[in-house]
Task: structure prediction
Amino acid sequence: MIDLRSDTVTKPTAAMRQAMAEAEVGDDVYGEDPTVNRLEARAAEIAGKEAALFVPTGTMGNTIAVKLHTSHGQEVIADARAHLLDYELAMTAWFAGCLVRPVQTPDGILSWVAIEPYVRALAAHYAPTGLIEIENTHNMAGGTVYPLATIREIADGAHERGIPVHMDGARVFNAAAALGVSVREIAAPVDTVTFCLSKALGAPVGSMLAGPADSIARGRLYRKRLGGGMRQAGVLAAAGLVALDQTPRRLPEDHANARYLAEGLARIPGIQIDPAAVATNIVVFDVGATGVTGAEISARLMAQGVRINAINPRKMRAVTHYDVSREECGEALEILGKVLAR
Ligand code: TLP
Result:
């Protein structure tokens, strides 16, 4: 199987498995797991924030972040295709009691100019804005990357109005690799950031929420309320530490493979994609003109040993990661060309 469904499918490396087997552990609900403590300290350092919290998933990290920054009856401004809005089972409403105010963008990248008209204060008809959320890289827009200046401009505008900013940085290491800057620089203007160990970085489980120490201390209690107190979680944190240490340097290769895939896709009749817009490891392409639905293409590919998911009838998404090579990307392209020519 050539699995391009997501970078979440990566299996732990030999080094991760060894670190997991040898991890020193304790009860993390008592704050006694030395490996989790090391991971949280390291994540805080990488993000350039005072503290960090190990959470089982990116969804839990975002859920806690929204809860930390808002109160019931507020709005969270996000891009209209945000993961927070489309793929997190309305946790913003369920846990924090807030609505998402979606803002349309061509490429998933918000700007202060796009956000400002939607910023509201409490008034006779309006719920006030409690938070601005930005997704970097932007998943469903095709792994697009926020320019540093845009993040600063959004944070400046928001902070002037007393509104915090949260970054869903599930793939912020991909953004860092694409821009050639540190995660710390990317996260500097925002109040909190989540990033995932279990996506492009390849760890089996886990995400980090980083921010001010008092927020993270409160976040720890929300994590417990959500059932995320993980006891001897050092076995998982150990893989996360290896992921942080070893995988970021591999990401440029994933990005080159994604561009290669996009260039090949652009040559297949009926497929529309601009390869130049593929900056990281996510390739979203339009199959509308092939006359075959995304779901049908996905099923045909699956029968030939290639897994690529449909987003909707017109759109599909392929994600590169360390468990797919350049050759396998080439094979996937060849098979896709054949199943569409049928
Ligand atoms: N994304 C998954 C699916 O849920 C779509 C994927 O395969 O890409 N933020 C962003 C930007 C994400 O892409 C994801 C997962 C999450 C948050 C949630 O992370 P988990 O799956 O750990 O809850």
In short: The pocket of TLP is lined by residues 6, 8, 57-59, 62, 83, 87, 135, 139, 168, 170, 196, 198, 207 (CB under 6 Å).
